[in-house]
């Protein structure tokens, strides 16, 4: 007998032994799949959670959603590399959850879905089998480096010549430090550097600091600072995390005034050396976005999908479904 439940209070989930265990770092080896991540999104980013859970004995499926007014979205934002359903086996009771959600929403939109692990196809199949109309499209890219057992020297030898020349010329002009714990002074330096960088204003500094502290406590943080050789104020900073054989590159910034020293490139190289030779990771994940500089460091690109699920008989969906129909006709005419 499948039991369906919804949680808008994440403290309820934390007090549920089975569910809390499923969504803990003991079972989930990427930050975006954990209850702690969703709690930070609620506390610091203004997202209103609605965890949809289906359980059948020892099987479970969890879909972390947010929103109201009948249109639900993923419990995720710009800090989230990817979003996926959490299941205990191939599908678990995910299809049961999709059928029950008919009474909770007229439309569900989720982005950032991977499919190298089958997540996008799994969710698409579950909702289609429950009678939803599903639109699937590629909406983003994810740059990665499969390490394939090589050491740092072998890795860097395969980078573009321009990057290798930059590192050779500038590395002795920049000192780097990599911390594996949270340090308040280093974090203050990161925030100061970010404010003087080319980056847009930080969406939620409180979220990022809380996440860094959390990962530092767990030993997963790699917080790196660069300074001019011989000392001086910090001129570049980066935040990575490492777990489950993967290094995740979350944030990087350098002072625009220090650009001639290429401190960002030198610091990135130092972190690659650390995660490859010391942490022995299998994969480096540069998150989403097709920024040209990522291609210098990474070797593969994976698509990230958006699924738009519509209840076909819901009147509120008809204008959007009409637009989709027109786009399909236009695309067909163009191909023809």
TrEMBL record:
This protein's name: BioF2-like acetyltransferase domain-containing protein
Organism field: Novosphingobium malaysiense
BioF2-like acetyltransferase domain residues: 162-295
Entry superkingdom: Bacteria
InterPro entries, per database record: Acyl_CoA_acyltransferase, BioF2-like_GNAT_dom
Pfam families to which the protein is assigned, alphabetical: Acetyltransf_6 (PF13480)
